[in-house]
Amino acid sequence: MLAVVIWLLAACNQAPEPGSAEETATVKNLPDQAIEEPFEMASWTNVTLGVANLDAALALWVDTFGFEVSLQSEGPDSGLAHLWDLQAQDIARQAVVRTPGERTGMIHLVEFNDPQPPIRQGAEVFDLVPKNLDIHVRDLPARVEELKAAGMRFRNENYSEVTIPGGGIFREIHMPAHDEVNVVLLEVIGEELPYTSRGFAGVGPVITIVPDAGEEKQFYQDILGLDILSDNILAGPEIEKMVGLPPGAALDVSVLGNEKQHFGRIEIVDYQGVEGEDLYPRARPKALGTLQVSYTISDLQPLISRLEAAGIRYTRYGEVRTLLGSGEAIAFHSPAGFRIEAHQRP
What we know:
Blueprint: H1 2-12, H2 32-36, E1 46-51, H3 54-64, E2 68-74, H4 78-84, E3 91-98, E4 106-112, E5 130-137, H5 140-149, E6 160-163, E7 169-176, E8 182-188, E9 200-201, E10 205-209, H6 213-222, E11 227-235, H7 237-243, E12 250-258, E13 261-272, E14 289-297, H8 301-310, E15 315-322, E16 325-333, E17 339-344
Parallel strand pairs: 1-4, 5-8, 10-13, 14-17
Antiparallel strand pairs: 1-14, 2-3, 3-4, 5-9, 5-10, 6-7, 7-8, 11-12, 12-13, 15-16, 16-17
């Protein structure tokens, strides 16, 4: 139900003007010359999921949702091992799946040899962790029935539906997937997207739970140059009941990205008035679940200038060859600890 509320508010409210690592870095105000450098990071290219069994993951994304496999490989990968401080033999198989023809919002599935436990194993709803993947759906009631007939389970008995002022209708339901990944199936009635033949599209936002929404928003605006598409505080008895929060707690919820690009967005959620365990240290290869997002840009230097001006630590890997291509690569973290890679490619 929370995803519906967020989309409802995004539709009803005017987004504010755009402005904001190694794990605990604080974002400083950037000098004007850093902010004015040309930039192009509107949507992430791919989100990386660690999986215990690639075939099981492909059964969901390809056979059930209708995504296409754009890239696939088997065997060790020295490029990924370099990026992730692993042995090449730790990587068993990989695949990149996507809404057919799309270049953003892709999913990079990596099967590890001898994987670690899922990142979200035993997590509470408010724990600090990469939490959900939003998948857009055409005709959610029909898709839910098809998925149930195929043996899929849902976290809710029925999907939620909200009608906003003006007549817009939003529907959503949560679905547990492989490796304790949580998928949110979301329908905005009348929304035109490049759906698969099965009626699915994405990934829209990746949802991250953070301890300080203000710092996180500043980071994504100032460092990545993203726009705030919605920015709201959700509070009151109905929200407390819906999410399972104690009295007086609230949610600070924001979606960042580019208004014209539905895929590859970032959603940050700060559970205020309740303290969650920090699980971001678990989100490292070879763990299972959502590990990171990667951006592809033509020139890393403007991003590096912003990171250095803000005092955010980053790792420079030099030229790296992976399944997704070759080029210079860097990695850094959001203030909450979410890993982000940037790859320079023409």
